[in-house]
Write a structure and sequence with these properties.
The complex is a heterodimer.
Chain A (H helix, E strand, L loop, with lengths): L9 H36 L2 E3 L5 E5 L2 H7 L12 H32 L3 H12 L6 H12 L4 H8 L13 H26 L2 H9 L4 H30 L2 H5 L8 H9 L5 H32 L7
Antiparallel strand pairs in A: 1-2
Helix pairs in contact in A: 3-7, 3-9, 7-9, 8-9, 9-12, 11-12
Chain B lengths: L9 H19 L9 E8 L5 H11 L1 E8 L2 H9 L7 E2 L3 H9 L34 E13 H4 L5 H9 L4 E3 L3 H11 L9 H13 L4 E4 L4 H6 L4 E5 L2 H7 L4 E4 L5 E10 L6 H11 L2 H11 L6 H4 L4 H4 L8 H4 L2 E3 L7 H13 L2
Parallel strand pairs in B: 1-2, 1-3, 5-6, 5-7, 9-10
Antiparallel strand pairs in B: 3-9, 4-7, 4-8, 4-9
Classes of the chains: A mainly alpha, B alpha/beta.
Chain lengths: 310, 356
């Protein structure tokens, strides 16, 4: 991405640079218009006064952040620690989602990578199959599955595993189940990509040289598949932090996450600037967390054998 | 947090999902086709107009009618404000009619001067910004009460009974709507659902918070759960009668005796409407008693069109949960626009939603 080798000499290098710039122009323009643009708009809105019926008044206004961080104290705008609490809870739920996705997908990725090519392609196809049906429809199917008279509970009752229907629907557990379900493909695909690249001869070499199975995993397999784990976790963590469909359908809107709070500001509360301020706060926090996470991993990575970096 | 118990084989989910998707797809095929004299595009609440009305209009005037739907007034307003164009007619609630009028989003139609406007009961011209009905036509109204499963909750009469069910271990669901749900707290404390008093609002929110442990969920999607008995009773609209009519032994809708809110939507033409003439033609078409009655026969809600009442089936006209007697009518309160004070509701609502 940084074009670090561009320093080589001659007209050839120049031509290559020009070609690169040309190729990058389209995606850069796209991102500038559809990502940076709206983001800048959000940033500006978060410092403006809310319009009475949505929209904004173009005057500088700091109370949107004051409500979140503690200096607002008027009839209409007052500090409430509830916003930070909702944020902490969302972080916790998103962490659980990433963890369980990883737990399910990591062994599955190894299993699928050992299958014959046809079976492997079939499984990759199956993992993307849910995308063919609308998310809301799939989640409503989960409501029907998880309710007390639903399939899951009836099956458990029928097998005599429980005496009375489990209270799953409209709890935090239902939200985590739903989010794990939604985000499994996002975890599986990057994991699979790095597991498949794993060179079996390195594992053999490690065993030949006397490493135990655990040592082999810890020193060879884990570092080599780390890029997939990191990539998958980030791709699952970030959207699950902002998800508002799962908590409102499976959590019965009793489990409020940051996404729901922000949605509420833009729609029923008609307070766009406060919604923007919440959004900016979440983004800043996520960015900070990611920087810390990647830094920590990079340090681990340096300690690992040099072959670990792909 | 145990997860293992909830993990299901994917295939059955996908299959069920596919079945639901297919049936939803079939339902979504609403009138479209027939290119003739022009177009008309409606932006309405989901399932809030009898599709036969659109067909009849299309046949009579040769106009291609399309229908998009929204779930809340705010969603519709946000879209129109964000610059959505192409819609001709929207169906805001009365307080949203006032807001949209102030924002200059509505077109003058002079529907109130049309000779057939005499069909409309004047008590339904409610929008304060439009006292002569120069802009919008009162469309439909109804109460917001309780729908219950007769095996689980037979005999409940009001909000106190509703929450008592939950005390006994039955499940109940409230709407995920800040004004409706805080409205119950206000009614039960003897305040107006349009209160702007911080103390009254705090009291109302506390009423809900004290009971939040017994409330299963805040959602609009409660009917299938009440029908299956997973939930004993739910806060819902008069439209629940549509389902109760199909399975009268299972479902029943009541207006709570302590009082309830009512809603009314008006039919408005947007200032940005591309087909203003067809839109006004549709409004005039809807003034006809037989058209208004056609809508009621499928929607089972209230109409402001007086002669239409003569044309609707006795089973609907005689149903007191749809057309309540005057003393019950007097206990139904309609929402007003609160302007800035909506923030007070929003704050209390966030408190309710985060209470455990």
């Amino acid at each position: 991405m940084t074009g670090r080798q561009a320093a080589s000499h001659g007209p050839n290098a120049l031509r290559r640079q020009a070609a690169l710039a040309l190729l990058l122009a389209a995606p850069t323009l796209f991102l500038a218009v559809f990502f940076v643009g709206p983001l800048a708009l959000m940033f500006v809105y978060s410092w403006l006064e809310p319009g009475l019926y949505g929209g904004v008044e173009w005057t500088f206004y700091h109370l949107n952040f004051g409500r979140i961080f503690g200096w607002a104290n008027t009839r209409y705008e007052s500090f409430d620690p509830v916003y930070l609490r909702i944020f902490a809870r969302s972080l916790w739920l998103a962490l659980q989602t990433s963890f369980f996705c990883l737990l399910l997908c990591y062994p599955a990725a190894f299993w699928v990578s050992r299958l014959g090519p046809r079976a492997r392609n079939l499984f990759i196809f199956l993992i993307t199959l849910p995308f063919f049906v609308s998310l809301v429809v799939r989640l409503f199917a989960w409501v029907l599955l998880l309710r007390p008279t639903g399939f899951v509970n009836q099956a458990l009752l029928g097998l005599g595993l429980v005496e009375r229907p489990l209270e799953i629907i409209y709890t935090e557990a239902a939200v985590v189940i739903g989010m794990v379900y939604v985000f499994i493909p996002f975890m599986f695909l990057p994991l699979y990509a790095s597991v498949e690249k794993l060179d079996a001869s390195l594992v053999e070499a490690s065993q030949d040289l006397g490493a135990s199975r655990f040592q082999t995993f810890r020193k060879v397999v884990l570092p080599l598949t780390l890029p997939g784990i990191v990539g998958g976790s980030i791709i699952v963590f970030i959207p699950s932090l902002g998800n508002f469909v799962v908590p409102s359908l499976l959590g019965g809107a009793k489990v409020m996450m940051t996404g729901n709070l922000i949605e509420q500001q833009f729609l029923s509360a008609r307070n766009w600037p406060f919604g923007a301020a919440l959004g900016m706060t979440v983004m800043a926090a996520v960015l900070l967390l990611l920087v810390v996470y990647v830094r920590l991993l990079a340090r681990d990575d340096d300690a690992a054998p040099s072959g670990a970096r792909s | 947090m145990k997860l293992s118990s909830g993990v299901k084989p994917k295939s059955s989910t996908a299959l069920l999902g596919a079945v639901i998707a297919l049936s939803a797809g079939v339902l979504a095929v609403v009138p479209q086709q027939a290119a003739a004299e022009g177009k008309l595009s409606l932006y309405n609440w989901g399932d809030y107009i009898n599709p036969k009305i659109l067909e009849t209009f299309k046949e009579e005037f040769g106009v291609e009618v399309s229908l998009d739907t929204y779930g809340t007034n705010e969603e519709m307003l946000a879209k129109i404000q964000a610059g959505a164009t192409g819609y001709d007619i929207v169906f805001p609630s009365v307080h949203m009619h006032d807001i949209m009028h102030q924002l200059g989003l509505l077109a003058k139609t002079d529907i109130g001067s049309h000779p057939d406007f005499k069909n409309i009961d004047p008590q339904f011209i409610r929008a304060r910004t439009d006292p002569q009905a120069e802009y919008c036509l009162p469309y439909a109204w109804g109460s917001v009460g309780i729908v219950y499963n007769r095996q689980k909750a037979e005999g409940i009469e009001g909000w106190a009974d509703f929450f008592a069910l939950a005390e006994k271990g039955e499940k109940i669901i409230l709407l995920d709507d800040l004004r409706e749900t805080l409205g119950i707290g206000l009614i039960m404390n003897g305040h107006s659902v349009n209160s702007r008093d911080e103390d009254e609002l705090r009291q109302a929110a506390d009423y809900i918070i004290e009971r939040v442990g017994n409330i299963s969920a805040f959602t609009y999607d409660s009917i299938p759960l009440v029908q299956s008995g997973d939930v004993a009773a739910a806060h819902w609209y008069v439209g629940a009668n549509i389902f109760a009519q199909e399975i009268p032994d299972t479902l029943k809708y009541i207006i709570p005796k302590e009082g309830a809110t009512m809603y009314q939507e008006d039919m408005c033409v947007l200032a940005s409407a591309p087909n203003k003439e067809n839109a006004i033609r549709f409004m005039e078409f809807y003034l006809r008693p037989e058209i208004a009655a056609l809508n009621v026969s499928q929607q089972l809600n209230g109409t402001p069109n007086v002669p239409a009442l003569e044309l609707i089936p006795e089973a609907i006209r005689g149903n007191e949960s749809i057309y309540p007697p005057q003393e019950v009518m007097d206990k139904l309160e309609i929402f007003e626009d609160l302007g800035q004070d909506l923030k007070l509701y929003n704050r209390e609502w966030t408190r309710v939603k985060t209470a455990q």
